[in-house]
Amino acid sequence: MIPDESEMLSMSKEKVLAHIDVAMGGHVAERIFLGKDSITSGCGSDLKGASNIAYQAVRRFGMFGEEVGYISADKKDNSEYYNSMVDKEVKKILDESYERVVKLLQSKEREIRELSKNLYWYDYLDAEEMEKIIKGKKIKKEKVREWEGEKYIVK
Questions:
Q1: Cβ(57)–Cβ(66) below 8 Å
Q2: Can you give the pTM of this predicted structure?
Q3: Which H or E run includes 31?
Q4: CA-based torsion, 54, 55, 60, 66: positive or negative
Q5: Which terminus has fewer CB within 10 Å in the chain: N or C?
Q6: What DSSP character marks residue 73?
Q7: Taking every annotated instance into account, which residue ranges of this chain make up the domain Peptidase M41 (predicted)?
């Protein structure tokens, strides 16, 4: 979930970066698991959200002021040069986030693939079942399918 400006008022830099990483997750996951040529347009909102958080953190809250300076102002109130610096800082933040998320998802590839396979097969998993799968254990449960108003159990 993308935090709004009021939620960001009391957020630490670490938490802001975590929100950016979460927003980048869908795009990175599609790139890793589907391939760069199979990324869907659905990730556009993820990237927009990550960008919005990064811009607010830089421009409105001065969280990344090392290069840009500690100024809080809207884009329209600043020079082209300053806006260019903000854009570069936001790109740096997003690039670093991308790399963190790639490393994380690659390190958890087995777990992600197993969860994905089980979700495909069973349609839903509860927290206990997900925990078992993440730990490398198999789950056994009935798969219920409905067809023409009747329920069928597939084992």
A1: no
A2: 0.79
A3: helix 13-34
A4: positive
A5: C
A6: -
A7: 1-133
> Would you write out the chain's pLDDT as a tens digit for each of its 155 residues?
677 777 777 789 999 999 999 999 999 999 999 898 888 888 888 899 999 999 989 988 888 877 777 766 666 667 888 889 999 999 999 999 999 999 999 999 999 999 999 998 888 899 999 999 999 999 988 777 777 777 666 66
Report yes or no: 80 and 1 within 8 Å, Cβ to Cβ.
no
Bridge partners of 89, per DSSP, are none
Judge whether 43 and 29 are in contact, CB under 8 Å.
no
One-letter identity of residue 26:
G
**Domain ranges within the chain, ordered by starting residue:** 5-107, 111-154
